[in-house]
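Fig. S4 source data, part A: sequence.
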Amino acid sequence: MSLKVVLAYSGGLDTSVILKWLQTERNYSVIAYAADIGQKENLDHLPERAKDTGAVKCIVSDLREEFARDYIFPMLRAGAIYEDRYLLGTSIARPLIAKEQVRIAREENADAVSHGATGKGNDQVRFELSYAALAPELKVIAPWREWDLGSRAELLEFAKKHGIPTPVTASKPYSSDRNLFHVSYEGGVLENPWNGYEEEMFEITVSPEKAPDRPTLVEIGFSGGNPVSIDGVSYSPYNIIDRLNDLGGRNGIGRADVVENRVTGMKARGVYETPGGTILHEARLALESITLDAEVANIRRDLMPRYSRMIYGGYWFAPERLLLQSLFDEAARAVNGVVRLRLYKGNVMVLGRRSDNSLYSESVSTFERGAMFDHGDATGFIRLNALRLKIRRAAEKKR
């Protein structure tokens, strides 16, 4: 009886070759598994393709709502941005894919799990740290670190030798990856950070120059830090992001060209489209400005970069991420209300925000008479804060 392995499978050249390699070179019975996480790709053909390549079974899991509700939304509640620019669209998808892969492995009594991530990238770390946290008993097979196939030409030769039906696609000078939250582009011509890119590369956003000349006005409702409605209409987590992707994409919002520091120690360039996520970040910040206590907001801002590095580095299921998540979720309980925005030629502009539990007080903030504020109180406050500065200056003069 041969051993069983569950392979994270896309149907492309790499994972098709890996499927056959696991079968012929490692003597595994292969269960192919594909996750629908909102990549807007028809996956109905995958079971037949996987079986034609040698899989004993192919499972396609619809994870769209779970992805939005249990992964994207918690990340948004924390305001996570990696190295000031990257909204973590690829990073946040990997732990969910791994979690479902582990579930299937247990259900099928498999002995191992396998993925198609290369030895240079971040994804191998994200997948394997997730496996370790959820099912350390499973063997992990990472073909790109084990086989001697080192180029696309060698993969194509292997495919030809074994009669693997590889998809025929137009040649692209880069690689791309898509899910509900974003589309990423890297490699090829983008590896030189001086090189530009063709406008045709982008899949879900128009260029700001070609965006409509009239702005789009939108109101987003939040409850407990989560977006729940658009223009007064309630949507499910998946559908609210999908709808904002459409609104943002049509207005040229959410493009970013980033050089980031990979967990493997090298710098890498990625170009991203995150229209809905960009809108939600701006809306959430606006609502937090009136609902979060100043020191709570400061603590959250201090901890957010560390939390973002955890997601980027694959520590979604680690105790430190869960600890910080509880803190961010407690703060997010106050983030309730509505934000009004203008979307226009690549920009997200806040027009207004309101909340029943707002900490903003017009009677305190106003410049008019009758305010709940005694201007004389500031005298003692300034004197106390200036005391150490006066002492330091006196010591300097004495020296």
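Fig. S4 source data, part B ends here. The radius of gyration is 25 Å.
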